[in-house]
Protein backbone atom coordinates (compact mmCIF):
# COMPACT_ATOMS: atom_id res chain seq x y z
CA UNK A 1 0.00 0.00 0.00
CA UNK A 2 1.41 3.38 -0.96
CA UNK A 3 1.80 5.99 1.75
CA UNK A 4 -0.92 8.29 0.25
CA UNK A 5 -3.35 5.34 0.15
CA UNK A 6 -2.49 4.32 3.70
CA UNK A 7 -3.01 7.88 4.90
CA UNK A 8 -6.43 8.12 3.22
CA UNK A 9 -7.71 4.83 4.58
CA UNK A 10 -6.42 5.58 8.08
CA UNK A 11 -8.26 8.92 8.02
CA UNK A 12 -11.46 7.23 6.89
CA UNK A 13 -11.07 4.53 9.53
CA UNK A 14 -10.67 7.17 12.23
CA UNK A 15 -13.87 8.94 11.08
CA UNK A 16 -15.74 5.63 11.05
CA UNK A 17 -14.51 4.59 14.51
CA UNK A 18 -15.37 7.99 16.00
CA UNK A 19 -18.81 7.83 14.38
CA UNK A 20 -19.46 4.41 15.90
CA UNK A 21 -18.66 5.82 19.35
CA UNK A 22 -20.52 9.11 18.93
CA UNK A 23 -23.66 8.22 16.95
CA UNK A 24 -26.18 5.41 16.86
CA UNK A 25 -27.65 6.33 13.49
CA UNK A 26 -25.74 5.03 10.46
CA UNK A 27 -27.10 7.94 8.41
CA UNK A 28 -25.02 10.39 10.44
CA UNK A 29 -21.88 8.30 9.93
CA UNK A 30 -22.67 8.12 6.20
CA UNK A 31 -23.00 11.91 6.20
CA UNK A 32 -19.60 12.27 7.92
CA UNK A 33 -18.00 9.91 5.40
CA UNK A 34 -19.60 11.82 2.51
CA UNK A 35 -18.25 15.11 3.87
CA UNK A 36 -14.80 13.57 4.15
CA UNK A 37 -14.93 12.26 0.57
CA UNK A 38 -15.98 15.68 -0.70
CA UNK A 39 -13.30 17.53 1.29
CA UNK A 40 -10.63 15.21 -0.12
CA UNK A 41 -12.09 15.22 -3.64
CA UNK A 42 -12.21 11.43 -3.52
CA UNK A 43 -14.48 9.01 -5.37
CA UNK A 44 -16.48 6.66 -3.15
CA UNK A 45 -15.88 3.88 -5.67
CA UNK A 46 -12.10 4.29 -5.55
CA UNK A 47 -12.07 4.37 -1.74
CA UNK A 48 -14.26 1.27 -1.64
CA UNK A 49 -11.79 -0.57 -3.88
CA UNK A 50 -8.92 0.41 -1.59
CA UNK A 51 -10.77 -1.00 1.43
CA UNK A 52 -11.98 -4.02 -0.57
CA UNK A 53 -8.39 -5.06 -1.24
CA UNK A 54 -7.75 -5.07 2.52
CA UNK A 55 -11.10 -6.54 3.65
CA UNK A 56 -9.42 -9.59 5.20
CA UNK A 57 -7.11 -7.40 7.27
CA UNK A 58 -9.10 -7.35 10.53
CA UNK A 59 -8.15 -3.73 11.08
CA UNK A 60 -10.37 -2.79 8.13
CA UNK A 61 -12.95 -5.62 8.04
CA UNK A 62 -15.61 -3.80 10.07
CA UNK A 63 -15.21 -0.67 7.95
CA UNK A 64 -15.59 -2.82 4.83
CA UNK A 65 -18.80 -4.37 6.19
CA UNK A 66 -20.14 -0.88 6.90
CA UNK A 67 -19.48 0.23 3.31
CA UNK A 68 -21.40 -2.83 2.10
CA UNK A 69 -24.21 -2.10 4.53
CA UNK A 70 -24.69 1.49 3.39
CA UNK A 71 -23.75 1.10 -0.27
CA UNK A 72 -20.83 3.54 -0.18
CA UNK A 73 -18.93 3.14 -3.43
CA UNK A 74 -20.70 -0.15 -4.16
CA UNK A 75 -24.09 -1.85 -4.24
CA UNK A 76 -25.69 -2.61 -0.88
CA UNK A 77 -25.04 -6.25 0.02
CA UNK A 78 -26.52 -7.22 3.39
CA UNK A 79 -25.53 -10.88 3.15
CA UNK A 80 -21.85 -10.06 2.59
CA UNK A 81 -22.16 -7.37 5.24
CA UNK A 82 -23.10 -9.99 7.83
CA UNK A 83 -20.29 -12.29 6.65
CA UNK A 84 -17.61 -9.65 7.24
CA UNK A 85 -19.13 -8.34 10.46
CA UNK A 86 -19.04 -11.92 11.75
CA UNK A 87 -15.42 -12.31 10.70
CA UNK A 88 -14.47 -9.20 12.67
CA UNK A 89 -16.74 -10.08 15.60
CA UNK A 90 -15.19 -13.51 16.04
CA UNK A 91 -11.81 -11.79 16.17
CA UNK A 92 -13.03 -9.57 19.01
CA UNK A 93 -14.21 -6.37 17.34
CA UNK A 94 -16.83 -4.82 19.66
CA UNK A 95 -18.59 -2.77 16.97
CA UNK A 96 -18.82 -5.79 14.66
CA UNK A 97 -20.21 -7.98 17.48
CA UNK A 98 -22.94 -5.41 18.06
CA UNK A 99 -23.75 -5.29 14.35
CA UNK A 100 -24.01 -9.08 14.15
CA UNK A 101 -26.43 -8.95 17.08
CA UNK A 102 -28.42 -6.25 15.32
CA UNK A 103 -28.52 -8.31 12.11
CA UNK A 104 -29.97 -11.30 13.98
CA UNK A 105 -32.38 -9.05 15.87
CA UNK A 106 -33.69 -7.22 12.80
CA UNK A 107 -33.31 -10.08 10.29
CA UNK A 108 -31.00 -8.04 8.07
CA UNK A 109 -28.95 -10.22 5.74
CA UNK A 110 -29.69 -13.27 7.89
CA UNK A 111 -32.65 -15.04 9.47
CA UNK A 112 -33.96 -13.56 12.72
CA UNK A 113 -32.65 -15.41 15.78
CA UNK A 114 -33.32 -13.80 19.21
CA UNK A 115 -30.94 -16.15 21.03
CA UNK A 116 -28.04 -15.35 18.72
CA UNK A 117 -28.90 -11.65 18.85
CA UNK A 118 -28.65 -11.74 22.65
CA UNK A 119 -25.37 -13.67 22.48
CA UNK A 120 -23.69 -11.15 20.19
CA UNK A 121 -25.03 -8.12 22.04
CA UNK A 122 -23.61 -9.63 25.22
CA UNK A 123 -20.25 -10.21 23.49
CA UNK A 124 -20.22 -6.57 22.39
CA UNK A 125 -21.17 -5.38 25.88
CA UNK A 126 -18.47 -7.54 27.46
CA UNK A 127 -15.98 -5.85 25.13
CA UNK A 128 -17.06 -2.49 26.57
CA UNK A 129 -19.07 -1.11 23.66
CA UNK A 130 -21.73 1.31 24.91
CA UNK A 131 -24.16 0.51 22.11
CA UNK A 132 -23.79 -3.21 22.84
CA UNK A 133 -24.68 -2.50 26.47
CA UNK A 134 -27.70 -0.56 25.27
CA UNK A 135 -28.94 -3.37 23.04
CA UNK A 136 -28.37 -5.83 25.87
CA UNK A 137 -30.60 -3.61 27.99
CA UNK A 138 -33.29 -3.76 25.31
CA UNK A 139 -33.07 -7.55 25.26
CA UNK A 140 -33.70 -7.65 29.00
CA UNK A 141 -36.48 -5.06 28.81
CA UNK A 142 -38.36 -6.89 26.05
CA UNK A 143 -37.33 -10.48 26.79
CA UNK A 144 -35.39 -11.02 23.57
CA UNK A 145 -33.27 -14.17 23.79
CA UNK A 146 -33.50 -14.07 27.57
CA UNK A 147 -36.03 -13.78 30.40
CA UNK A 148 -37.49 -10.29 30.78
CA UNK A 149 -35.80 -8.43 33.62
CA UNK A 150 -36.50 -4.70 33.78
CA UNK A 151 -34.06 -4.15 36.66
CA UNK A 152 -31.22 -5.55 34.53
CA UNK A 153 -32.43 -3.49 31.56
CA UNK A 154 -32.19 -0.30 33.63
CA UNK A 155 -28.74 -1.31 34.86
CA UNK A 156 -27.40 -1.79 31.34
CA UNK A 157 -29.13 1.34 30.05
CA UNK A 158 -27.43 3.32 32.80
CA UNK A 159 -24.01 1.90 31.93
CA UNK A 160 -24.57 2.48 28.22
CA UNK A 161 -25.80 6.04 28.74
CA UNK A 162 -22.75 6.82 30.86
CA UNK A 163 -20.68 5.51 27.94
CA UNK A 164 -22.43 7.93 25.57
CA UNK A 165 -25.04 5.67 23.94
CA UNK A 166 -27.87 7.94 22.79
CA UNK A 167 -30.32 5.07 22.31
CA UNK A 168 -30.01 4.13 25.97
CA UNK A 169 -30.49 7.76 26.99
CA UNK A 170 -33.73 7.71 25.04
CA UNK A 171 -34.80 4.38 26.54
CA UNK A 172 -34.10 5.63 30.06
CA UNK A 173 -36.23 8.66 29.23
CA UNK A 174 -39.07 6.31 28.31
CA UNK A 175 -38.63 4.34 31.51
CA UNK A 176 -38.80 7.49 33.64
CA UNK A 177 -41.74 8.89 31.67
CA UNK A 178 -43.75 5.67 32.05
CA UNK A 179 -42.48 4.58 35.47
CA UNK A 180 -41.20 1.31 34.03
CA UNK A 181 -38.62 -0.17 36.43
CA UNK A 182 -38.04 3.21 38.07
CA UNK A 183 -40.20 5.75 39.87
CA UNK A 184 -42.06 7.90 37.36
CA UNK A 185 -40.22 11.21 36.92
CA UNK A 186 -41.00 13.42 33.93
CA UNK A 187 -38.11 15.77 34.72
CA UNK A 188 -35.62 12.91 34.51
CA UNK A 189 -37.30 11.73 31.32
CA UNK A 190 -36.90 15.16 29.72
CA UNK A 191 -33.27 15.30 30.86
CA UNK A 192 -32.47 12.02 29.11
CA UNK A 193 -34.42 12.96 25.98
CA UNK A 194 -32.43 16.19 25.75
CA UNK A 195 -29.15 14.30 26.07
CA UNK A 196 -30.20 11.87 23.32
CA UNK A 197 -31.43 14.72 21.11
CA UNK A 198 -28.11 16.53 21.51
CA UNK A 199 -26.45 13.47 19.98
CA UNK A 200 -28.84 13.60 17.00
CA UNK A 201 -30.76 10.49 18.02
CA UNK A 202 -33.94 10.20 15.96
CA UNK A 203 -36.21 9.00 18.75
CA UNK A 204 -34.57 11.25 21.30
CA UNK A 205 -35.59 14.18 19.10
CA UNK A 206 -39.02 12.65 18.49
CA UNK A 207 -39.78 12.10 22.17
CA UNK A 208 -38.57 15.57 23.12
CA UNK A 209 -40.78 17.01 20.36
CA UNK A 210 -43.74 15.01 21.67
CA UNK A 211 -43.23 16.42 25.16
CA UNK A 212 -43.14 19.99 23.79
CA UNK A 213 -46.19 19.32 21.63
CA UNK A 214 -48.23 17.95 24.53
CA UNK A 215 -46.81 20.02 27.37
CA UNK A 216 -45.38 17.04 29.22
CA UNK A 217 -42.77 18.37 31.64
CA UNK A 218 -42.18 21.35 29.37
CA UNK A 219 -44.06 24.48 28.41
CA UNK A 220 -46.18 23.53 25.40
CA UNK A 221 -44.80 24.81 22.12
CA UNK A 222 -46.03 23.53 18.76
CA UNK A 223 -43.31 25.55 17.04
CA UNK A 224 -40.48 23.94 19.01
CA UNK A 225 -42.08 20.53 18.54
CA UNK A 226 -42.21 21.05 14.78
CA UNK A 227 -38.52 22.03 14.64
CA UNK A 228 -37.53 18.91 16.58
CA UNK A 229 -39.78 16.64 14.49
CA UNK A 230 -38.21 18.16 11.39
CA UNK A 231 -34.68 17.44 12.60
CA UNK A 232 -35.65 13.87 13.46
CA UNK A 233 -37.54 13.40 10.17
CA UNK A 234 -34.44 14.33 8.18
CA UNK A 235 -32.64 11.48 9.97
CA UNK A 236 -35.22 9.08 8.55
CA UNK A 237 -37.46 8.74 11.62
CA UNK A 238 -40.86 7.82 10.17
CA UNK A 239 -42.81 8.70 13.33
CA UNK A 240 -41.46 12.24 13.11
CA UNK A 241 -42.18 12.37 9.37
CA UNK A 242 -45.76 11.34 10.11
CA UNK A 243 -46.12 14.02 12.79
CA UNK A 244 -44.66 16.69 10.50
CA UNK A 245 -47.13 15.76 7.79
CA UNK A 246 -50.03 16.18 10.21
CA UNK A 247 -48.75 19.55 11.40
CA UNK A 248 -48.38 20.81 7.83
CA UNK A 249 -51.86 19.52 7.03
CA UNK A 250 -53.48 21.26 10.00
CA UNK A 251 -51.21 24.30 10.24
CA UNK A 252 -50.00 23.53 13.77
CA UNK A 253 -46.58 24.95 14.65
CA UNK A 254 -46.01 25.80 11.00
CA UNK A 255 -47.91 27.46 8.18
CA UNK A 256 -50.45 25.12 6.61
CA UNK A 257 -49.05 23.50 3.47
CA UNK A 258 -50.90 20.56 1.92
CA UNK A 259 -48.16 19.88 -0.62
CA UNK A 260 -45.65 19.45 2.21
CA UNK A 261 -48.13 17.33 4.15
CA UNK A 262 -48.58 14.98 1.20
CA UNK A 263 -44.81 14.89 0.60
CA UNK A 264 -44.00 13.84 4.17
CA UNK A 265 -46.77 11.24 4.27
CA UNK A 266 -45.33 9.85 1.04
CA UNK A 267 -41.77 9.81 2.43
CA UNK A 268 -42.85 7.97 5.59
CA UNK A 269 -45.02 5.56 3.60
CA UNK A 270 -42.15 4.69 1.27
CA UNK A 271 -40.07 3.86 4.35
CA UNK A 272 -42.76 1.41 5.47
CA UNK A 273 -44.84 3.39 7.97
CA UNK A 274 -48.32 1.84 7.83
CA UNK A 275 -50.04 4.86 9.42
CA UNK A 276 -48.54 7.08 6.75
CA UNK A 277 -49.69 4.65 4.05
CA UNK A 278 -53.23 5.00 5.34
CA UNK A 279 -53.08 8.81 5.43
CA UNK A 280 -51.51 8.86 1.98
CA UNK A 281 -54.53 6.92 0.76
CA UNK A 282 -56.79 9.54 2.32
CA UNK A 283 -54.84 12.27 0.52
CA UNK A 284 -55.29 10.49 -2.81
CA UNK A 285 -58.97 9.88 -2.08
CA UNK A 286 -59.81 13.50 -1.29
CA UNK A 287 -57.10 15.27 -3.31
CA UNK A 288 -55.18 16.65 -0.34
CA UNK A 289 -51.92 18.08 -1.69
CA UNK A 290 -52.22 15.91 -4.79
CA UNK A 291 -54.67 15.23 -7.62
CA UNK A 292 -57.45 12.90 -6.51
CA UNK A 293 -56.85 9.31 -7.64
CA UNK A 294 -59.08 6.64 -6.12
CA UNK A 295 -57.08 3.76 -7.58
CA UNK A 296 -53.94 5.01 -5.82
CA UNK A 297 -55.98 5.63 -2.69
CA UNK A 298 -57.16 2.02 -2.76
CA UNK A 299 -53.59 0.75 -3.25
CA UNK A 300 -52.41 2.75 -0.24
CA UNK A 301 -55.30 1.50 1.91
CA UNK A 302 -54.49 -2.08 0.89
CA UNK A 303 -50.84 -1.72 1.93
CA UNK A 304 -51.90 -0.18 5.25
CA UNK A 305 -54.55 -2.88 5.80
CA UNK A 306 -52.15 -5.72 5.07
CA UNK A 307 -49.74 -4.13 7.56
CA UNK A 308 -52.38 -4.32 10.30
CA UNK A 309 -53.62 -0.72 10.30
CA UNK A 310 -57.29 -0.90 11.38
CA UNK A 311 -58.25 2.43 9.80
CA UNK A 312 -56.68 1.19 6.58
CA UNK A 313 -58.73 -2.01 6.85
CA UNK A 314 -61.90 0.01 7.33
CA UNK A 315 -61.06 2.36 4.47
CA UNK A 316 -60.23 -0.54 2.18
CA UNK A 317 -63.62 -2.01 3.02
CA UNK A 318 -65.20 1.31 2.07
CA UNK A 319 -63.16 1.46 -1.15
CA UNK A 320 -64.54 -1.92 -2.21
CA UNK A 321 -68.04 -0.87 -1.15
CA UNK A 322 -67.86 2.40 -3.12
CA UNK A 323 -66.21 0.82 -6.16
CA UNK A 324 -62.90 2.71 -6.09
CA UNK A 325 -61.41 0.11 -8.42
CA UNK A 326 -64.22 0.58 -10.92
CA UNK A 327 -66.38 -2.26 -9.62
CA UNK A 328 -68.36 -2.52 -6.39
CA UNK A 329 -67.18 -5.60 -4.51
CA UNK A 330 -69.30 -6.26 -1.43
CA UNK A 331 -67.63 -9.60 -0.73
CA UNK A 332 -64.22 -7.98 -0.18
CA UNK A 333 -65.85 -4.99 1.48
CA UNK A 334 -67.43 -7.22 4.13
CA UNK A 335 -64.16 -9.16 4.50
CA UNK A 336 -62.18 -6.03 5.37
CA UNK A 337 -64.87 -4.47 7.54
CA UNK A 338 -64.94 -7.73 9.51
CA UNK A 339 -61.15 -7.69 9.79
CA UNK A 340 -61.29 -4.14 11.16
CA UNK A 341 -64.04 -5.13 13.63
CA UNK A 342 -62.01 -8.11 14.79
CA UNK A 343 -59.04 -5.81 15.39
CA UNK A 344 -61.21 -3.47 17.49
CA UNK A 345 -62.12 -0.68 15.06
CA UNK A 346 -65.71 0.13 16.08
CA UNK A 347 -66.45 2.34 13.06
CA UNK A 348 -66.57 -0.73 10.83
CA UNK A 349 -69.62 -2.16 12.65
CA UNK A 350 -71.93 0.57 11.35
CA UNK A 351 -70.74 0.01 7.77
CA UNK A 352 -71.38 -3.73 8.06
CA UNK A 353 -74.84 -3.00 9.46
CA UNK A 354 -75.62 -0.80 6.45
CA UNK A 355 -74.48 -3.45 3.95
CA UNK A 356 -76.38 -6.25 5.70
CA UNK A 357 -79.52 -4.14 5.90
CA UNK A 358 -79.40 -3.09 2.24
CA UNK A 359 -78.64 -6.60 1.04
CA UNK A 360 -81.00 -8.21 3.53
CA UNK A 361 -78.16 -10.49 4.58
Q: What do you see in this structure?
A:
By secondary structure, the chain is mostly helical. It has 20 helices and no strands. The protein has helices at residues 3-22, 26-39, 44-53, 58-70, 78-90, 94-106, 114-126, 130-142, 150-162, 166-178, 186-198, 202-214, 222-233, 238-250, 258-270, 274-286, 294-306, 310-322, 330-342, 347-359. Helix 4 runs antiparallel to helix 5, helix 8 (130-142) runs parallel beside helix 10 (166-178) and helix 12 runs antiparallel to helix 13 (222-233). The N and C termini lie far apart (79 Å).
Along the chain, the helix and strand elements come as HHHHHHHHHHHHHHHHHHHH
Please outline the major beta sheet.
none
| Poorly predicted runs | none
The whole-number mean of residue pLDDT values reads 95
Radius of gyration: 24 Å
Helices, by number, come to 20
How many strand units?
0
Specify the helix fraction band. Answer: over 70%
Helix-and-strand structural type: mainly alpha
What would the principal axes of the Cα set say about the shape? globular
Strand content: under 5%
Termini separation: 79 Å
